[in-house]
Fold these 4 entries.
Entry 1:
Amino acid sequence: MAHSAGRFPKTGLVARAVCLLFAAVWGPAARGQPQHAPPEHVTPEAAAEQLGGVTRITVHAREQSPTTVLREIARQAGVGLDDYDVRETLGKSPPLTIDVEDQPFWQVMRSVTTRLGIHAAFRERPDFWSHESGWMLELRSGADTRVQGPSRVEGPFVIVASRSVRSRYLTEPSEPPRGTQAMIDLIILVDPRVRLRGRPSGRDLKVLDDRGNPLTVVGPEYSWPHDVQMLSPLMWRLTAVVDLPEQGATRIGKIQGVLSDLVATVESERWEVSDLSVVPGADASDKGSARRAGGAQFAIRSLIPEPDGDERQFRLTLASFGLGETADFGWPARTGDDRAAAIELLDGAGRRYFAQSWEEAERGVWHVRFRPRVDKENEPVGDPAKLIWKLPTKVVEIDVPFEFTDLPLP
């Protein structure tokens, strides 16, 4: 693939005409897309089926080192594992014997790490240098009380009732008392196959005390979480708050509701571009650098060398507008992490570049910078020769019901 002086060939009047074409196709008219209906609501089981199943683990180990067991779990889950911080701890731990057959990833990982007195959490940002999936699971010292407690599996999610506490507001003597409240923390553990858009929320919350009396939920019924916090991309915490009677309530008898706004891509279309010399300014009608999928428009605008000192680097510019790509009613905007994970850049031998960074240049237009990724044989990576972009064709909102009974209330 020939190119000159840091830019793929595309000059003169043809390039200017093509730029004008893109301005027409991707200009204000395209950006002012009419609002669409929100994503279809599906059950966790339906979402799991559309995803091709959830991540399930089978391990039968006899007197194996903890490191060996944990690496096997990560391998089956298709994620990377960083055990640097706990190598000394794992080295002193006795061998593990474990028999697990076709169990959800998070259930197995929670069980093993709890036995070892450590905990696991995914890095806050995808790391495509360390692992092709971008997911890197870090092991850290100390048990993580946030993911301990009663749990239930719902399709690609594990819901944990991790904590319930009683709180009382302090007021000035001249002010009326504000009463006592209970705060209940729920943890959502997300299957590695799922990349969420936006932030989860909740609705239809009902809470009973240990005598069966309903407790007043603080906040609107359609959005009860008081605090939504991303602990990692695959771990979220939501807090429910209820008013307690002055006397009598010693436990939470039942809490039930629905976790909502869990929006994710469940089906995609593979778009493969094998002649990258046509990418800069390519005309959708005859060059194949623009495509429609799932109610949205996608375009590969350019791929240019952008060296960083002595490091080889290429900047890919992408554009996407329409259903689910730019802001629309009921459609949370896709994150840059989600977009970067949908793109592969390869050389002629299939060796990968990795996404080093990504940023939104303007509404609907993204820059993704790639660097060569050293393969296992330390073979040098050649010039980019193929681009694969997974275009979302079906996006759904997954409604996750939950119910827990007899929770302690300190």
Entry 2:
Amino acid sequence: MIQKSKKNKTFIFLSITSLILFFFFNKKNLFIFFENLNVIENLNFSLQNNTILREELLQRINDFENKKEFRELIIKEKLFFKDKSEKIIFYKLDD
């Protein structure tokens, strides 16, 4: 009787593990797994680029707030033309 019980438990254990292996490691799921790894890698790369960009922008904002020279340069850059080919549109304002 004990031997049948051990065989039965072993059979159940092997059946469950084989089903788990089949569901997790079949061909479709493996492809999805590797695709997800690629997506994660791309997102990590994008995240690193965004953090670098964020740091640069924060530095620029900090410079703009704290340095008068930098503020003047940025304002001149935004207000004045970069090329001579750029045109102006004048508006009449009613005071």
Entry 3:
Amino acid sequence: MDMMDTLGLVAPGALTGAGAAAQERLRALAEQARTCSRQIHGAGEQAAGATRIEWESEAAQLFRTGMSRHGSQVVLARDQLEQAAVELELAGEQIRAHLEGLATAMAAARDRLGQALHRETQRLLDGVQDLAGDTVEAGRRALESVEVCGARAAAEALGGDPLAAGVRSALAQAGVR
């Protein structure tokens, strides 16, 4: 019963708990990704502000071009972090749902196993009761046989005694020879 207790009673709850914990951890990672995305967005806005310089020169133009390129990389990184956050949350939901499904299946298997064990135990008990009844009946018959044989021997020992004749008559009526 320890195995059934472990697998049947503890495991479904453990799977459900593990699914919820995994979902919560992935949700926390998604929030971290969103925080990084906001930080990158803020840095990108600061960089964009730096490109609004007033002077015109070849160096200023190179600076604006480089910052613009970095700005587009910032936007791409921000979008990727947002997408990663969405995928992390979705993965957490899928993991939780899958583990809850396993827990449900395991609980159902536990119930079916319990029912099968109950049926088999009842069948075995019925067999033991039948065997015990047969054994008692055989013992009763053996005891009667011993008593009848003893009565016959006593009647034969008495010989011609009227009491012996009565015992022999009773034995004959009982079908004992």
Entry 4:
Amino acid sequence: MSDHQDSPAAAFPYPKDFTENWLKIATRSQQLIGDFLQHNESFMKEAQLDPLNLSRAFLDMTNRLMANPQKFVESQVSLWQDYMKLWQSASLRALGHDTAPVIEPEKGDKRFRDKEWTENQVFDFIKQSYLLSSRWLRNTVAQTEGLDEHEAKKLDFYTRQFIDALSPTNFALTNPEVLKKTIETGGENLVKGLENLLADLERGKGRLAIRQTDLDAFKIGENIATTPGKVVFRNELIELIQYAPTTKTVYETPLLIIPPWINKYYILDLKPENSLIKWLVDQGYTTFVISWRNVDESMAETTLDDYMLKGAVAAMDAVKKATGEEQVSVIGYCIGGTLLAATLAYLAAKGKAGRIAAATFLVAQVDFSEAGELKLFIDEEQLAAMEKMMAEKGYHDGHAMATTFNMLRSNDLIWSFVVNNYLMGKDPFPFDLLYWNSDSTRVPRAAHEFYLREMYQKNNLVKPGGITLGGVPIDLHQVTVPTYIQAAETDHICPYPSVYKATQLYGGERRFVLAGSGHIAGVVNPPAAKKYHYYTNDALPATAEEWLIEATQHKGSWWPDWHHWNAPRCGQKVPARTPGDGKLKPLEDAPGSYVKVRYS
């Protein structure tokens, strides 16, 4: 390499630009701090010091560690030994020897993909040092004796959040990609990153609203949620969309989808190639979907009873008016499936179970005893803090809920965008799924409080008569309609062992299918994509683990399996129904108005 190439000027060709950019950064940083303090003055006065109730948990862990000093010393020695191995490996590599890594990133960890993390000795050492410390810290927490199960899981979760935040990829001076970009642009990337940060703070009105995608690249009804249809019913809580047929004949029994109200229905209709709604229409189903209202403070007292009666039941009544059919096949997705289960029990108690031809549950929990990491946010102290905030606003803010879900995959959904937007100075890439993910919804205080306390915390839905909805004690054991229960293998929101528990509650014919991937991709997996896999097993033993041992794996999407199961329960073929043919006349084109309400 020539002297010129080795010189600082060659490595850093824009010293004047760099100096000017650092002055811009200093000025913008001052503005940033001022804006943040101004926007958050009232919040900081009212904020709790420990809203997540972490201090007590970590203090308890520390006390238990100190109560067994020998084990703690052994843990320290183990870390020291790992570092000695790393130092030895690094020293040998510096002398020109080939050495195997002491530790490598876990499968699926995308943070260290840049070749510099492996080829550059300094960055490789930083990476391995971080991974060793991370492993040691998690092991130390996991091996602390005497913690109850909830506290242990909570400590592990927030330890992971701490570890993820301190990744060397998240800092400009320890990220080779950022350093390279900074040198190439004379620091312009950091100036652009600060502009992105200021824009996100302004958009969030002081709250850091990290952009995960280009928010201007999508418009609902134009290039997202475009399956043709009409809104045929509306009340204060829902709009009901009936989709236009694409086949000359359709199944006699219509199909109703109850999506979750904690986010928007169009996850099932992002674009034609991956739209479950379009695929259902193309299979010959007269398809309806509920579009929930994005509530404001005026709906604070809306209850879960309202979601059942003015939502699910009202939609079933509207489908009957639109088609003339008494029966309907119903799909409930996530919390929409939880509501569907309660609605089936309600109808059974009312002697109206015959209205349901078949019920499908997509990644939906009804037994919350093993509900996964979301339960970590629902201990008494956190619930009390959440209820206080909801009492003031009248609703649970969708942004807070989105942050909770993002924390479950913080490296992918938080820190990757911190690096891309603020350190690299790039704009996020247009991505329909992440546009939907950022389109958060509010949930009424009364309904959300009941759901969290009675279902998540007390698990009363599985207890006969444990909750009452619509004046009826709910007993899931009275559900005897045919049920198709789908779960996702790596679902971090509704873990498949938790979803499986429903098979032991319902009577009647039941089928359980386990799809590959997670909470979203495990559901939205069109056959044409030829991705992932799914498992089937006609037997329904006591646990999901037993079920999986004897299950058969199939390649591709589970959608055709569901169609093969559902179609025989939907009667004969009849001439296709166009929205407006029945007693309900179109109010407006799909996707309607409720789905377009977006709060900053």
